[in-house]
Amino acid sequence: MGSIYFDHAATSPMDPEVLNAYVEAVASGPGNPSSLHAHGRAARERITSARDVFASILNCEASELIFTGSGTESDNSALFGAAMAQRKRGRIGIVTTAVEHHAVLNACRQLEADGFDLTVLRVDEFGRVSVEEAKAAINESTAVVSIMAGNNETGTLQPIAEIGEWARKHKALMHVDAVQAFGYVSFNLKELPIDFLSLSAHKINGPQGVGLLYVRKGTPFQPLLHGGSQERSRRAGTENVAGIVSFAKAAQIAYDQLRARWDHAEHIRATVLGKLEQYLGAERFVVNGHPDHRLPHILNLSFSGISSESMLMNLDLENVSASGGSACNSGSLKPSHVLSAMKLSSERVSTAVRFSFGLGNTREEADKLAKITATISARLRNR
Ligand SMILES: Cc1ncc(COP(=O)(O)O)c(C=O)c1O
């Protein structure tokens, strides 16, 4: 057995079918979707088909979808786009949670620096926000509410429908970062009280550098990027045609296999947990995140007495890739803002490791991971 990749929440391997779609789109020749000639029209048709795929999966209209360059861009476009438009109506409140991805949190902080009134909701020890506290924070001056569907470090799911309902009652706009949840959870936008939804291709076995933003028809929105009239003048810039085409392919596969994907990830997660109990002992680690309201592909564990860095370095030496939190934090080794917001002890925060599962992972790998982790743990404890 070679290397083991358990960092799918950071980025996921491309599905071979998706890769084929990507290569086929690139190999089909040049074509700027804005050009009027046959090459351009062919490229435009590809994007139109990809948009139709998403419209059907998300149960929305194709005209409500904007292709972007990343999940981060989708989040920023939603927040700035909504906030700027809402400010013209006298609304300056932004409500979010302490466990959002930095693409949302730092965008909100920038809006605060620009004069918006920011409320960051706390979470409980499982990383879940209280619907009551969210309701209390939303009022007639709220411009945007941004709550993630599923957390990228713990997998904890948030009560987005209940909060969205309340936001709508108060004419505040609701944004949901579904970057981690999409592919495991289905989103029916005809029914969900959501105005903006962010997705990213590379978390669902698609290519890096492509995102999608849903903007409900009639929602006040000001574009982030100005230039050409691409994406109905809501996102300027020549489209990443091959990226978009293969993102749609990845989304279609994920949607068709939603249940199987969930069961597979859940099986790997349960195997890792069961085997760790067997090889290491249940008293040596603790699970961070909600026990029930959670995604299946993320397992955040704290190993008592072993720093995240030591565990990750030793795992890396054994050819196992995992993460200490969100990917962007793993380079800087900062304590996770998500686990800190859950008010876990500093020991639990500084010993946390995130394993995340997906395409290609096997039961054998799960077993091997548990064995390796138990060995590392025993070695480091005996030093
Ligand atoms: C919840 C969440 N939102 C947003 C992002 C950013 O997506 P991208 O990497 O496509 O910019 C990530 C990526 O880790 C994420 O997990």
The total number of structural domains is 2
**Main β-sheet: number of strands, strand sense, barrel status?**
7 strands, mixed
Order of helices and strands: EHHEHEHEHEHEEEHHHEEHEHHHEH
Q: Which homologous superfamily in CATH is the superfamily of the largest domain?
A: Type I PLP-dependent aspartate aminotransferase-like (Major domain)
Class from helix and strand fractions: alpha/beta
- C-alpha geometry: globular
Instruction: State the helicity in percent bands.
Output: 40-55%
Instruction: Compute the separation of the termini in Å.
Output: 28 Å
Bound molecules: pyridoxal-5'-phosphate
Number of helices: 14
> Biggest sheet, strands in spatial order?
2-8-7-6-5-3-4
Tell me how many strands there are: 12
Low-pLDDT segments = none
Beta-strand proportion: 5-15%
Named CATH topology of the largest domain:
Aspartate Aminotransferase, domain 2
* C-alpha-based Rg, rounded: 21 Å
Give average pLDDT, whole number: 96
CATH architecture of the largest domain: 3-Layer(aba) Sandwich
CATH class type of the largest domain: Alpha Beta
Domain Aminotransferase class V: 4-369
Family: Belongs to the class-V pyridoxal-phosphate-dependent aminotransferase family. NifS/IscS subfamily.
Cofactor: pyridoxal 5'-phosphate
EC number: 2.8.1.7
